[in-house]
Amino acid sequence: MNTTTVSDLFRRSYGRKPDGVFSAPGRVNLIGEHTDYNGGLVLPFAIDARAHLAAGRADSGAIRIMSAQKPGEFSQVHLDDVRPGSPAVAGWPGYLLGAIWSLQQTGRPIESVDLVLDSQIPAGAGLSSSAAVECATVLAVSALSGYSMDPLTIARIAQRAENDFVGVPCGPMDQTASAACAEGSVLLFDTRSGSTENISFDPAAHDLTVLVVDTQVAHSLADGEYGKRRTSCELAAEILGVTQLREVTVDDLPAALSKLPDDELRRRLRHVVTENDRVESTVELLRAGRITDIGPLLTASHASLRDDYDVSCAELDAAVDTALTAGALGARMTGGGFGGSVIALVPTDLTDHVGAAVVSAFAGHGFRPPVLRRVSPAQGARREN
Ligand code: ADP
Ligand code: MG
After folding, report:
1. Residue 247 lies in a domain
2. Could you tell me the Gene Ontology terms of the biological process aspect for this record (predicted)?
């Protein structure tokens, strides 16, 4: 669906035209995984699959929400009931209501509003449909309320919605990517300084394609493993006497490893430190126009996530291994792990072959058939009309 169809759905649902249509994209992270809560570096790009949100001012005293992907599940919540933990905000509408609540927490008064969501981003595939919904909502409701807001502010408000309203302790990467990415670019986001820089990333110009393999294995960040990784990182930082693991460089790594008491903490540290280094190396290659050379860094990132950070799974590993054997230049899991998606950097003329190889490998293993998508770097959250 696009701008016109979400407007039509709004008109059919609420009997008038929306005051605006807004959109925000999903994202994949090219490299820099599990670094965003360690003050580290990430390198995501927004993808050409978006959540569209039609919005209209109302004077009902309530927020009314519909989603094209949840037919029949209309949600109407009085403004006074838009707070974390309220029974009125359970389920998927919480992503939109949380964004509105988080906006209110910045001291900006919010009026009632009618919303229709329509998203092309598959939910739970590791492509960050949740951040797109949150960013689109922050942008829509702030614009309708007359607040103009820069992308990083939108991202911070959206992240707070996910952390403190939905209750998922994610880092800042997803919302920042959805809000601040530029078309044809990856976003170098330094989560320690908060600085962002768009760096040209144009696979098509090099006859390359980024293929996303959605393993169809539901990742659930709320199920505890993500929280355990964060806790391990905090513990390692405490033992090493640093505020965040970002402060440990590859040069410091041997000495830092020798100070940690057990193998698990040592492996967690090694992943975070080497991953930050791989992001820097990737950026150097991209700046030099050497996109075809980044493959080994992607693949090394996957090995580190699999062996040191223990966040991969059989399906992710099979997708990576098969893609590489079939001719991908590099491949890695993207997102939190335990399922979700793999990205592979593939010579465009081999894309069908790589995709078919992964599908057949999954069948051979008895896994659910994966869903394949080609993605290209797209624009962050924007007003459509
Ligand atoms: P991801 O962000 O990786 O897609 P999450 O579990 O963080 O996965 O977020 C997915 C959740 O976001 C869904 O379960 C649903 O609650 C909400 N969501 C995403 N897209 C839509 C949509 N189009 N309509 C309603 N809810 C949605
Ligand atoms: Mg999410």
Report:
1. yes
2. galactose metabolic process
Residues 181 and 264 in one domain: no
Query: Rounded to whole angstroms, how far apart are CA atoms 19 and 357?
Result: 47
The CA-atom distances, in angstroms, between 65 and each of 62, 302, 326 are 10, 39, 45
Pocket of ligand 1 (CB under 6 A): 67, 69-70, 92, 95, 117, 119, 123-130, 133
Helices of type H across 76-169: 93-105, 129-144, 151-160
What CATH code is carried by the domain that includes residue 280? Answer: 3.30.70.890
Q: For residue 123, which atom of ligand 1 is closest to its CA?
A: 4
pTM of the complete model: 0.94
Q: Write out pLDDT tens, residues 302-311.
A: 999 999 999 9
> Can you tell me the distance from the alpha carbon of 90 to that of 119, in angstroms, rounded to the nearest whole number?
20
- The boundaries of the domain holding residue 190 are 3-198
Q: Residue 116: inside a domain, yes or no?
A: yes
174 in active site = yes
Query: Which CATH number covers residue 104?
Result: 3.30.230.10
Query: Tokens 């949150």 sit at which residue?
Result: 134
Question: Would 385 be classed as within a structural domain?
Answer: no
For the CA of 92, the closest atom of ligand 1 is 16
Q: Which of 69, 74, 92, 221 to mutate to test the pocket of ligand 1 (most atoms within 8 A of CB)?
A: 92
Return the H-helix or E-strand segment holding 179: helix 173-180
Do 102 and 214 reside in the same domain of the chain?
A: no
ipTM: 0.99
